[in-house]
Amino acid sequence: xxxxxxxxxxxxxxxxxxxxxxxxxxxxxxxxxxxxxxxxxxxxxxxxxxxxxxxxxxxxxxxxxxxxxxxxxxxxxxxxxxxxxxxxxxxxxxxxxxxxxxxxxxxxxxxxxxxxxxxxxxxxxxxxxxxxxxxxxxxxxxxxxxxxxxxxxxxxxxxxxxxxxxxxxxxxxxxxxxxxxxxxxxxxxxxxxxxxxxxxxxxxxxxxxxxxxxxxxxxxxxxxxxxxxxxxxxxxxxxxxxxxxxxxxxxxxxxxxxxxxxxxxxxxxxxxxxxxxxxxxxxxxxxxxxxxxxxxxxxxxxxxxxxxxxxxxxxxxxxxxxxxxxxxxxxxxx
Length: 334
Prior knowledge:
The protein has helices spanning 2-23, 260-270; strands spanning 34-48, 57-58, 63-69, 77-92, 95-96, 101-105, 111-118, 129-136, 147-154, 161-174, 184-196, 208-216, 222-232, 245-249, 275-278, 289-295, 303-311, 316-327. It is mainly beta. The chain has one domain (30-332). The strands form three sheets. Strands 1, 2, 4, 5, 7, 8, 10, 11, 13, 16 and 18 form an eleven-stranded antiparallel beta sheet that branches. Helix content is 10%, strand content 46%. It is built from two helices and 18 strands.
């Protein structure tokens, strides 16, 4: 009987110890962004938050509007226009629910595409849903007077509330083939929602979200490469605190991170290693969506390019990453 009781206790302990990480697991990087568009064209990619500001709590029938000034776009042909509505604190009577929102815009009403969500994933106070709702919109750019506005309304008559951190507008546009002012580009557009936070037993290594840009590149054609990452709540500074986050590009997070001299030597001799930048995301109480855009030309690989975003007691949601590579024409190969 005693041995049987000991076996039961051991089984219970094993179950408890194996369940604990599952209970707090969604603060880890467990929902990687996925590629929704990848191709090559003569044109460009634009991402803007317009005049987005934190909304505060939106109750039934309350509205929130963001305006986008697209004056500098001219009359380029829009291939894709997507809206990203970033929302947090969605709840009804202290229980997490999905937001019930309506959308309107100047021109044609945007159409729903998909919804990405994440939560901290364990029982506790304020385990509310956060996420991004994606819409497709239809824009025709003109030579002058390009502007666009979007309005979100809380349409839940049952009383749920949510807050908006902002709205992002993504434009993929194409130029005429003979327009040499527009470069030829290869582009990757990824999206999703991965909530990461190095706390509650989650280490910074676990609170790392990786983003993959699958496909091949002819490095002889590459002129320049830009990585754009959008991270709601990233680097939100309060009471004089500093941001704690790291962006990697084609950098394996491993033992060489702690040996910078050896890492630099290997890169110098063999081209080994990628880019590492600390505390790149900064947000404020008013503007709660951090955007980082940087040149990653020196770190490109011929295939399997990737980025990683790591939290270190910061708290953030990884939602968008764009890789835009400017190319020479086939006849201009180096």
